[in-house]
Design brief:
With 282 residues, the chain is α+β, with helices and mostly antiparallel strands. Helix content is 28%, strand content 26%. It contains eight helices and 15 strands. A hairpin with a 2-residue loop joins strand 6 and strand 7.
Length: 282
């Protein structure tokens, strides 16, 4: 599913609703972050989940059931709920649960909306740094400050204008899972930086690009990206150049000017490390 440039704009009230809902999710998760009485467990896929993840998703689901009862829902913790409208909301209640459980304030609350034309709304809320990026098809991409983000207080996203790959500031997510070939190729050409909120950093001009490789992302992790990055004026694909929602769940985000050169640089390189090749004795 790719971004439809010729589709009609989204209703502004729907974007405002999504922003307010993500803001409420942020308030709940921020309060939970500083509590001492919650517990985490491993899911069947080996990833962590906390009771705060579950509570935040339940908050969002309950509000969607009231405000958009005909829409489908897909959430990381609760799975799929069918709808009759043909439209769907995608929820990642706490994106970065590992950060959350280790008390690292880099998690986000992610919300996306898809209609009959494809990706329509994307919201990434970073409650502990008190800013949100939100976008809707045809309405642009906005950076919203504060603990209760509001579209009226937002500023337009602004990307860098760098057009040369050499030295491009590039955030990397999960480099422990990257193969040496990919890490080396990028290290030789660009300035690699740890990710502290890749999409927000891109659309506020703090970096020129970002790469996610290693173990594949979940659909809920990447669902907000097409609208946010495209409406900001950038470009997002997987590392093969395919639409990110249809690809292998690797991610390349850039200011747009650098995208093709990045794709040429990583062409033919593996995207994930083979852990079976590691020697446990070393």
């Amino acid at each position: 599913m790719d971004y439809a440039f010729d589709a009609p704009p989204v209703d502004l009230e729907l974007l405002d609703f999504a922003v307010r809902l993500a803001g409420r999710a942020g308030q709940m998760s921020a309060q939970g972050f500083f509590r001492e009485d919650w517990h985490s467990r491993l899911k069947e896929d080996g990833t962590e989940v906390t009771e705060i993840d579950v509570a935040v998703e339940e908050l969002i689901r309950n509000e969607l059931s009231r405000q958009a009862p005909d829409d489908g829902i897909f959430g990381e913790e609760g799975g799929s709920t069918s709808g009759s409208s043909g439209r769907r909301w995608i929820i990642d209640p706490i994106n970065g649960t590992t950060y959350f459980t280790h008390r690292v304030p880099l998690f986000s609350n992610d919300l996306a909306y898809e209609d009959e034309y494809g990706p329509a709304i994307g919201v990434i809320n970073m409650p502990l740094s008190r800013h949100m990026v939100a976008a809707a098809r045809g309405l642009g991409c906005w950076v919203l400050p504060g603990s209760a983000p509001d579209l009226r207080s937002g500023t337009r996203a602004q990307l860098t204008e760098r057009s040369s790959l050499g030295g491009a500031r590039t955030m990397m997510h999960n480099p422990a899972g990257w193969p040496g070939e990919l890490l080396g190729a990028l290290h030789r050409r660009v300035l690699l930086l740890p990710s502290t909120g890749m999409i927000a950093a891109l659309v506020t001009g703090r970096v020129d690009a970002g790469v996610i490789a290693g173990p594949p992302m979940g659909y809920e992790d990447v669902a907000p990206m097409p609208v946010i990055v495209t409406e900001a004026g950038g470009r997002v694909t997987d590392l093969h150049g395919a639409p990110v929602l249809e690809g292998d769940m690797s991610v390349l985000v850039t200011n747009g000017r650098l995208h093709e050169e990045f794709l040429r640089l990583v062409h033919g390189l593996p995207h994930s490390r083979d852990y079976r090749a590691l020697d446990d004795g070393e």
